[in-house]
Write a structure and sequence with these properties.
CATH superfamily of the largest domain: Butyryl-CoA Dehydrogenase, subunit A, domain 2
CATH class of the largest domain: Mainly Beta
Shape: globular
Strand order of the largest sheet: 1-4-5-8
Number of domains: 2
Low-confidence stretches: none
CATH topology of the largest domain: Butyryl-CoA Dehydrogenase, subunit A, domain 2
Distance between the termini: 22 Å
Structural class: alpha+beta
Mean pLDDT: 93
Number of strands: 10
Largest sheet: 4 strands, mixed
Strand content: 15-25%
Length: 357
């Protein structure tokens, strides 16, 4: 256990130095227009950070889901405009189907819309439309999950309609018209499992982004003066920053706790494990968006007008936290999913399920 913690600490230190060195205001400004940063991706690829968590046998860098969460948390603190979570999820899908993971930016989608997969000899031809695919314009491959099969598709053969989320990250519509899959293989991963893991990673990212927003608010309060006093000396400001700190701590704790649960139980097939997984992921994706709403508002209130200017760093992290609330299911979606699961279990199972989480 100690070795694992030490390794994760070193991984976090490396990631922190890399992001601190290469995520600059100028780079973030350019990324707002382009939807991502190729220059930052190239630097991260040299350190193999995009492939942390993907098994070495599949071409990844190895590591656990907790290692992935550690990297994503740091990346979100720096508002890194690169498809780290998406590349991990795509690599996880490819590895689950015993397919090689390319050393390139990837993205993924599940067949929650109509998709046609027709086998023609040894090849599969894929048709369908996928809405708001994260970082599609940056990806070399689109990894699809449909009907127990994983399909890897060359993005150069797809039609892309550019779009963006609230934080100006690329969220593109992708059209496939009889595209031949580069590789395919069966998987035990379900669309529900992919959706849940994506939601978990977004919760981790929200927590990381809010941590930086809180740091910025604290620093601003220490140096900004009003009426002859620093903002940090006003009791009302102290109270609001403390409230934001509680929200951020709760979001991070829920996300990291859920990561541990998923890491421990993801391979279990029994009903009790599935219930614990749902509770953990749902709790994280409910708590983190709630915190984003409250903590982002407080951070901007502390900053006043400067907090909404393009030149200041705050909006890069708060807009991402708010945009990620809606991806892989918002808090309403997960609240309803959690409620249905608890009702289905009945009164006798409610306390055991709650206490096990």
């Amino acid at each position: 256990m100690t070795d694992t913690i030490d390794t994760r600490r070193m991984l976090t230190d490396v990631a922190t130095r890399l992001f601190a060195d290469h995520v600059t205001p100028k780079m973030l400004d350019v990324a707002k227009h382009e939807g991502w940063s190729l220059a930052l991706w190239d630097e991260l690829a040299k350190a193999e950070l995009p492939w942390v968590g993907v098994p070495e046998a599949a071409g990844g860098a190895g590591g656990t889901l907790s290692d992935v969460a550690a990297v994503l948390r740091v990346a979100a603190r720096h508002a890194a405009p690169v498809p780290l979570a998406e590349t991990y999820l795509a690599g996880w899908l490819l590895a689950s189907a015993n397919l090689d993971v390319p050393r390139a930016p990837l993205t993924m989608a599940a067949a929650d819309a109509e998709i046609s997969a027709v086998k023609n000899g040894a090849a599969w031809r894929i048709s369908g439309v996928f809405k708001r695919v994260p970082f599609a314009r940056a990806a070399k491959q689109l990894v699809l999950l449909a009907e127990g099969q994983v399909f890897a598709v060359d993005m150069a053969t797809c039609g892309i309609t550019p779009g963006r989320n609230l934080a100006s990250e690329a969220r593109d519509d992708v059209m496939l018209d009889g595209v031949t899959a580069l590789a395919t293989g069966p998987t035990l991963v379900t669309c529900e499992a992919l959706h849940a893991r994506g939601a978990l990673l977004r919760a981790v990212q929200i927590g990381g982004a809010l941590e930086h927003a809180l740091d910025l608010a604290c620093e601003h309060a220490k140096i900004r003066t009003q009426f002859g006093r620093r903002l940090a000396q006003f009791q009302a400001i102290q109270q609001e920053i403390a409230r934001a700190g509680g929200e951020v701590a709760a979001a991070v704790a829920a996300a990291l706790s859920a990561t541990g649960v998923v890491e421990r139980l993801a391979d279990h097939q029994d009903v009790q494990s599935a219930q614990q997984l749902l509770m953990a992921v749902a709790s994280a994706k409910i708590r983190a968006p709630d915190a984003a709403r409250e903590a982002a508002a407080i951070a901007h209130q502390v900053h006043g007008a400067i907090g909404v200017t393009d030149e200041y760093a705050l909006h890069h992290v708060t807009l991402r936290a708010l945009a990620w609330r809606e991806e892989f299911g918002n808090e309403v979606y997960w609240s309803m999913a959690l409620g249905r699961a608890m009702l289905a279990g009945g009164a006798d199972d409610y306390w055991p399920a709650l206490s096990a989480a």
